[in-house]
């Protein structure tokens, strides 16, 4: 090897020694990169936890209200049809399932809640 190469090698070793004396972690690229990557992943995880939908709760609540309104409308429509039939099927036996009873109880309960809420808003 030439003397210029040896001098360059010696100068590089001296530079390495100086850098290590100033900062012992100067050549620890992987450890520093891993710690930076972990910090970034933690920030992303925290930001994902903080994100909550602004409107999803209201959309779901409004959809439930619309469904109840549609069910009430359907019930009123069926009741009118029964009244229009009159005594045509009076001699027939009627069957009501437990799920239908629960549904009608839910509709009437929702109607009571909505009327009380409407009255409360009206007073304010």
Structural shape: rod-shaped
The share of residues in helices is over 70%
**Biggest sheet, in brief?**
none
The structural class is: mainly alpha
Strand content: under 5%
Rg (CA only): 38 Å
**What's the average pLDDT?**
81
Which stretches of 5+ consecutive residues score pLDDT under 50? none
Count of helical stretches: 4
Helix-strand pattern, N to C? HHHH
End-to-end CA span: 95 Å
- By DSSP, the count of extended strands is 0
What attributes characterize this protein structure?
rod-shaped; 0% strand; mainly alpha
Structure description:
This protein has 124 residues and is mainly α. The protein contains four helices and no strands. It has helices at residues 3-22, 29-50, 56-85, 98-123. The longest helix is centred in the middle third of the chain and has 30 residues, at 56-85. The chain is rod-shaped and about 120 Å long.
